[in-house]
Amino acid sequence: MNYKVIGGKKLSGTVQTNISKNAAVALLCASLLNRGETVLKRMPRIEEVKRLIEVMESIGVKIVWAEDGDMRIVPPAKIDLSNINVESAQRTRSIALFIAPLAHLLGSFDLPAPKGCDLGKRTLGAHIDALAKLGITISGNEETHTYHVESNGKHPAEIIMYEASDTGVENVLMAAAKIPGTTTIKFASANYMVQDLCIFLRHCGVKIEGIGTSTLVVHGLKDIDSPIHGHPSEDPIESMFFIALAATTGSELVIERCPMDFLELELYTLSQMGLKYTRGESYASENGHTSLRDITIKPSELIAAPEKIAPRPYPGINIDNLPFFVPVATQAKGKTLIHDWVYDGRAKHYMEMTKLGAKMELLDPHRVVIEGPTKLHGADVEAPPALRPATLILIGMLAAEGESMLRNVYPINRGYANLSERLTKLGASIEAVE
User: Fold this and answer.
1) Whether the Cβ atoms of residue 53 and residue 242 lie closer than 8 Å to each other
2) CATH number for the domain whose boundaries are 2-18+234-433
3) Which of 38, 94, 256, 315 is least enclosed by beta carbons within 10 angstroms?
4) Is the omega angle on the peptide bond into residue 306 within 30 degrees of 0, that is, cis?
5) DSSP conformational letter for 261
6) CATH superfamily of 21-230
7) Which residues of 386-395 are buried (b: 16+ CB within 10 A; e: fewer)?
């Protein structure tokens, strides 16, 4: 699928933040911990979730996805990996989150690895080191392109995470949840999807202390076998997409159900760049834990950020929100330095904005200087293979004068449901075409 965009239009209206991709994926994988029925509320209809469902159904899990988004999950009496959907597994890096739940069901197993994925420590280092402390060992088989997992002799432990990996901590949480005793996780990510998983595990009866901090104490259970309801919360990265869209296009938008705890530094940074906004009263997400607000973005004269913009573990600027500062910076007076130190080479995808007329310089694989304000123009661009860089190009196209084509938008559909329809309701001219 491609997006045909006629940009340069002021947008207006109200948009609601959808449920988080990363939280939904974590809870979907965690449902395998429960031998009873799990109901996950308002699950987003995105490609990442669909790939995991295809894998789960291929190993015997029954899943019914209602029109309202509620998903009923019933595990089989015994998991069978012999007919696992390899193609779907290889299309999502989230497949790694099956390691811990399956380690409680199978002593030894092989799991397909994502295509193009390094099977060693570069990809799963945080998982490999931490899970080994709990008695779960992971190795890579290059010939079959699979992860090999051995999980005999599991035991609680004190774990120090050498990297603030969201998925690494999620795997450790799911492993510790069904290992009787106390497991302590230090230097843990406290990001939104980790907190959502902790709340879900609490619903499962697992006692977890320190939610929202960098030290988690998990009191594991021998078994989980009961009807469980889970409520993944709203996606701060999607809220940030619409915040950046409004800022870049000079539009007034109301973004509802924004998870404020995970957006405050981003909004403060944007306010330093001249962005004007208001926020409504706080209210709770359906999970009873996440604090939400409605945010109104006002058309603003933007200036370059006074300091470099770089991500940090929570409560810093989220690594997934960093790319959205790129299109905003193209419309800000002065030079903005964006330092993407976490991912090797992701900054090169930011340079696709130059095809729309952005003035940018790639200093090295991690740092980009953007000079603005720049009048953007339409272009024909292949979507970068990464989700967030692909969406920043779309924001640029919506701000650019003239017609653009963004080709092969599967990376966007991995994380955003009905995006073109939602943008159209805000006044954008965007059409999904073959």
Assistant:
1) no
2) 3.65.10.10
3) 315
4) no
5) G
6) Enolpyruvate transferase domain (3.65.10.10)
7) bbbbbbbbbb
Locate the domains of the chain by residue range. 2-18+234-433, 21-230
Q: Which residues pair with 187 in a beta bridge?
A: none
Using DSSP bridges, classify how beta strands 228-230 and 38-40 pair: parallel, antiparallel or unpaired. Answer: parallel
Distance between CA atoms of 195 and 39, rounded to whole angstroms? 18
Both tokens of 238, joined, read: 């999607």
Q: Are 119 and 157 in contact (CB under 8 A)?
A: no
Q: pTM of the entire structure?
A: 0.95
Nearest alpha-carbon partner for 415 in 50, 42, 37, 11:
50
Asked if 419 and 5 count as a contact pair (C-beta separation under 8 A), the reply is no
Q: What pLDDT digit, counting tens, does each position of 252-299 carry? A: 999 999 999 999 999 999 999 999 999 999 999 999 999 999 999 999
Does residue 360 carry a pLDDT above 80?
A: yes
The backbone torsions φ and ψ at residue 359, rounded to the nearest 5 degrees and listed phi first, read: -95, 105
Each residue of 285-339: pLDDT tens digit?
A: 999 999 999 999 999 999 999 999 999 999 999 999 999 999 999 999 999 999 9
Element (H, E) at 433: strand 429-433
